[in-house]
Amino acid sequence: MIMYPIKQMENEIPNSTTNQLFIQYISEAAVYTDNSFIITSCNEAAAALFNHRLHDILGFDISFLTPSSETNSQSLPLKNTAFTQGTIPFVNSEGKKIQVHITRHTIDAESISGGYLFIFKPIDQNNRIGARSATGNGLYAESTGGAILHSEAAYYWPVEQYGDAIIVFNKKFYCLDANIKACHLTGYTRQELTQLNLTDLLHFEELRQQMPEKAALESGEKILWEKKMRSKDGSTYYAECVLQQIDDDRILSFMRDITKQKKTELALAQSEERHRLLFQQSPLPMFVMDLQTFYFLDVNEAAITSYGYSKQEFLQLRALDIRPEEDYKIFYKKVHTISSGLVSMGLFRHIKKNGTIIDVEVYSHDFVYNDKISRLILAVDITEKLEAIREYRKTTVQLRELSDHLLNIRETERTSIAREIHDELGQHLTILKMDISWLHQKLQKYKDATVLQKTSDTLQLLNETIKTVRRIATDLRPSMLDDLGLIEAIEWQSKEFENRSGIKISFESTISHLPVATSVATSLFRIYQEALTNIGRHAMAKNVYSKMHLENDTIILTIQDDGIGFDMNTLDAKKTLGLLGMKERTLMMAGRFEINSKAGEGTTIVISTPCN
Questions:
Q1: Assessment of whether the complete model's pTM goes beyond 0.85
Q2: Which of 604, 586, 587, 608 is nearest to 596 (CA)?
Q3: Which of 572, 560, 565 is nearest to 601 (CA)?
Q4: Which of 557, 548, 549, 542 is nearest to 602 (CA)?
Q5: Which H helix or E strand runs over 527?
Q6: Whole-angstrom Cα distance, residue 564 to residue 538?
Q7: SS3 content of the chain, % helix, strand, coil (to 5)
Q8: d(Cα 241, Cα 230) in Å, to the nearest integer?
Q9: Helix (H) or strand (E) holding 603
Q10: Which secondary-structure segment (H or E) carries 314?
Q11: Which pLDDT tens digit goes with each residue over 341-359?
Q12: In b/e form, how buried is each residue of 458-494, taking b as 16+ CB within 10 angstroms?
């Protein structure tokens, strides 16, 4: 270990400035006095032990640390020339009695600048030296192994007890001596260290940097270094070094391992650099806004390009300055919403420098920027997107209106054709039937079997033709839909479908009278017709259950079958024009179309539409 006999120390620590520097790195309570035992410096550990502030201790006799009633019995041994160590009871400023082990080291005794170094170590109830202080401040950790200095230690500097690495260099920065902490930190033995220069301990990256200025050291200035170091095994670490020159041109260096702290700082710096690059290189406009004044604190290149302002101009603007005046209320309403993490603040309008108004979707994140509570703002220009959406909606409405118009035209044409068939063709066929029937009666007296058979066959053919014409007219437009209403038309359609397909249909309605527009009644009837047609073609059902009822001025038509059903996931892949037609008719009524099906469990269709 480093051991300096008194004679050697005469030139090592000759002034109070260096004393003050040195004892601050001692972990135990340390007090330095001059040759007259007047306290000239002490460390914070000593002030904490005796519950005094540092400036309250300086300038007093060492006896100041003991009660006046016991000054003679307690301070006399401390001032005795033969005293080197011992245990003395003390009473601190709180009136608590504590046992303290004291060692006294003589420094440069023959010099006018010499004095004494006192090291105080509290003793606990188990007589362990270096236990926690009676003041309970926790500043005093147990010393290694609980050992104390041997009696001859009074003649040596106790640097092996210090928590920091200590290395002594000459003025050319060659190592002269080191303590055990320095050996642990560097990985070298004391003997190996004495063969090295400071540059041998520095990492290669640090060799390009300037060495400590000798002029500053010679003037007594303390130099604080933070350096990347290289240990014996080649591993790297970071050290905080305090260097100060001693009178004989030797340099005292205290080194503290700050690797964890430095790595944290480097990681933070790298993170900040990454975020800075993300901010500057983002293709989307980004702003930093002061949440107190609303002034911009920073903007990226994308914002400058997009909005047309220079960076200097942006920094003179507030966030309100790029918004239409009529949007101020929206801004004030949302600006105080706390945004933890990147969250969407909604849609806003911004004004470019040329006056162009754009729609933007704003995302924000609150953070501290240059000690100011700020908000990071990401503005996504969605002007073209919204315009495309508006155009799409406009086109959709136009197409739906066209489809509705075409359906109305078709229904009108079907109604017209049905009436023409019923009124004109049906009437002519009836007259023809009457004429053939009259002719058949007149031919009876001739008893010509061949002629009579021919007229009879003609009458039968006419009857079938009349039925076919009536069926076609009814399929084109059921007359009862106009004459009797929607409910009766659906009941009739149900019976007709049951007769043709053999599938039993149960229709239920809780509506006695349904005052709806003709177009709505027609659409609901056609949807019901199409649903029954699909069931007859694909469902392989035996029963159909249908119901119509009113709920809060909404007509609800339900059609359910017990057929084979289908997988809903395959619905989009099928060319289901019938279903598409039903959906379109429902949308034209401002209604809602729902279909649910499962393989083996049938299908259910629900149509909901307002009465009006």
A1: no
A2: 604
A3: 565
A4: 542
A5: helix 518-534
A6: 8
A7: 45, 25, 30
A8: 14
A9: strand 603-610
A10: helix 311-314
A11: 668 788 999 999 999 999 9
A12: beeebeeebeebbeebbebbbeebeeebbbebbbebb
